[in-house]
Design goal:
The strands form three sheets. Strands 1-6-5-2-3-4 form a six-stranded parallel sheet. The radius of gyration is 26 Å and the shape is globular. Among the domains are: 165 residues, Rossmann fold (3-Layer(aba) Sandwich), CATH 3.40.50; 191 residues, Glycogen Phosphorylase B (Rossmann fold), CATH 3.40.50.2000. It is an alpha/beta fold. Strand 3, helix 2 and strand 4 form a beta-alpha-beta unit.
Length: 615
């Protein structure tokens, strides 16, 4: 039975020889209240491991690169097996099976941590210092699930600590002028906002066609504005209504137990192969809790969408959604299918078509949940439509005009730097997908070496732009920033502003990782130096072969990587720009294949598809 202390006066810190803690501030508080300085502190926090205190140990060290490679690489097959198994159960429909497959993928974050425990953790005294503090939209995700995994240990205890002098912010446009925001957003965004407001007050009988939007992205805004100009009603829909369990016949209740019996052997086999014997049963009990909670949430969202989605006998309707590959999107897709409302989505960003490790999240692909997907390029359509879960029609429409506007940002002479390093160093914590074969601490060390061995030694001043982290992974500041601030050659930019508003401030751009960030940078037309990390979000083999013809790519596993990168960036900027121009023809080809097939008009093109095929 888990013993939970309400305050430090009720716990004898001195009796614990091993504690779990991911906050420097909380650990210092524990020392002041009696925790022995020689107690072993198990942590995942890069900041706590930075000082190399021999009593503070990396609990994730048990994961070698090879073990993580196998673990991460097997998640795709797990998701496919779970989907097929769930779908074979009588009464379980496609969207629910997708949702079950997804919860199995989500649970891998828990399994990753469970595999860090040893038998002693289940029998000997252990204290978990749980941290509370300000966080992002996902709530408090700063703590590993030790209290859930070790609750069967009668000698396990947990105490709460609230961070002092705590602050946290999320992505915003604060500090970006209204004129600059309009310049990037474009006039179609204004049309979209006006259409939403005006069409609310116009009688429904006026419209024969309607597009329903539960959320938005750059491309969907353009599509909706183009449709609005053609007389299509644009309506925002939110699942704000309270659920009504009788509103939709979701066949789950009688089959939930059959479903769990069908899928649990798949997960049991995986758990048994990864965790210590003492952890197997507790980990499976936790998976069952996740499973039941996810089923309940699926039914909950189905009911809410069913009450929010108002069908019309007078007009044709379609739903246009951004990133539908989650429980809300799966539930909405289920309701739309039952009502014969076409469910359409658009590509959210460039990742799957360039990433070597995209299979881990293939269960979330738009192609598995939507009737039709509007893609930027043919490569993404090829990758996503070949996934195990795919069922959608594909249309290639190109990137949004916001992406295209990056080409005209120019350069500001007022900037104190001419080179910017756009960091994508977002730690996994307890919520991120793997997409890497490194622990968070190893990732921090590699990022530090870029700072100290390359950026700090350049003859040009460099702007270090942090990743605008919305959901707080760790209580402590990223320790890499200490190296950044120690440098006289690097200026730290840690305001949570999107990079698209800052591209004009620099001439040369450096970044790493096969993420959507790369697309915004490439579309600017400015020289892009890409660090291909072999063990963290690497490029796929074909993307590497082709992109290397149009970009400057450096592999971090090659001999003299830091020296070669430093030498290249130490050249006169005009020489780097000249070399960039020599790659122009190749770059135009890779942009068409991996970024945007068309050079503009994506919103109009997509609107015509929707009108012709679905409205």
């Amino acid at each position: 039975m888990l013993k939970q202390f309400k305050n430090n006066n009720s716990v004898d810190f001195s009796k614990y020889k091993v504690v779990f803690c991911d906050s420097t501030q909380a650990l210092e508080w524990a020392y002041l209240n009696g925790l022995s300085s020689s107690a072993i502190v198990k942590t995942s926090s890069p900041a706590m491991l930075w000082g190399e205190n021999k009593y503070i140990v990396n609990i994730e060290k048990r994961w070698s690169i090879e073990e993580l490679r196998k673990f991460q690489g097997s998640i795709q097959k797990l998701s496919e097996d779970m989907f097929d198994s769930a779908l074979s159960v009588k009464g379980i429909e496609r969207e629910c099976a997708l949702s079950i497959s997804q919860v199995a993928v989500i649970f891998q974050k828990v399994l990753y941590k469970a595999a860090c425990l040893n038998d002693d953790d289940f029998t000997n005294p252990r204290l978990f210092i749980y941290v509370n503090g300000k966080t992002g939209p996902s709530g408090n995700v700063m703590n590993s699930p030790w209290n859930e995994l070790l609750k069967s240990n009668p000698l396990f205890s947990m105490i709460n600590y609230t961070l002092q002098n705590d602050s946290w912010s999320t992505l915003s446009t604060q500090g970006v002028s209204y004129l600059q925001r309009i310049k990037v957003a474009g006039y179609k965004t204004i049309i979209f906002r006006l259409a939403i407001k005006l069409m609310k007050i116009i009688p429904n009988c006026i419209f024969k066609k309607e597009i329903l939007m539960p959320n938005e992205n750059e491309l969907n805004i353009e599509i909706a504005s183009s449709l609005a100009l053609r007389g299509v009603k644009v309506t925002e829909i939110k699942s704000n209504y309270p659920p009504n369990s009788d509103s939709v016949d979701v066949v789950l209740g009688g089959y939930a137990e059959d479903l769990y019996k069908k899928i649990s052997p798949i997960m049991y086999k995986r758990v048994e192969s990864l965790v210590t014997k003492s952890a197997v049963d507790d980990t499976m009990k936790l998976f069952r809790i996740y499973f039941k909670s996810h089923l309940k949430q699926f039914k909950f969202h189905v009911s809410k969408w069913d009450r929010s989605l108002i069908s019309s006998d007078r007009s044709k309707q379609v739903v246009l959604m951004n990133t539908p590959g989650n429980i809300k999107g799966q539930a909405l897709s289920y309701v739309c299918r039952k009502r014969n409302i076409p469910f359409i989505s658009s590509q959210h960003g460039v990742t799957a078509e360039i990433s070597k490790l995209h299979g881990e999240v293939s269960v979330k692909f738009e192609s598995g949940i939507s009737d039709a997907v509007l893609y930027y390029n043919s490569k993404c359509a090829e990758v996503k439509n070949s996934s195990h879960f795919s069922k959608s029609r594909k249309y290639i429409v190109g990137m949004s005009s916001r992406h295209m506007k990056m080409r005209s940002v120019g350069f500001s002479n007022k900037s104190p730097t001419k080179i910017v390093y756009v960091s994508t160093n977002l730690y996994r914590g307890n919520i991120g997908h793997l997409a890497t074969w490194n622990t968070d601490y190893d990732r921090a060390i590699k990022e530090k070496h870029i700072v100290t061995e390359v950026l700090d030694k350049l003859p040009h001043r460099v702007l270090y732009k942090t990743y605008p982290e919305d959901n707080r992974r760790y209580a402590d500041q990223d320790p890499v920033l200490l190296s950044v601030m120690d440098s006289d050659n690097i200026i730290l930019f840690d305001k949570k502003i999107d990079m698209r508003y800052l591209i004009a401030n620099n001439r040369i751009i450096i970044t790493s990782g096969a993420t959507s960030t790369l697309s915004w940078l490439v579309m600017s037309g400015k020289p892009v130096v890409f660090i291909n990390r072999r063990e963290k979000s690497p490029l796929s083999d074909d993307a590497y072969y082709n992109l290397s013809k149009g970009l400057f790519i450096f592999n971090d596993d090659e001999d003299n990587f830091h020296i070669n990168l430093k030498l290249f960036l130490s050249q006169p900027l005009s020489e780097i720009e000249r070399l960039w121009q020599e790659k122009k023809v190749f770059r135009e080809n890779i942009i068409r294949e991996y970024f945007s097939l068309y050079s503009g008009g994506a919103g109009e093109r997509a609107a015509k598809v929707i009108l012709k095929e679905y409205l």
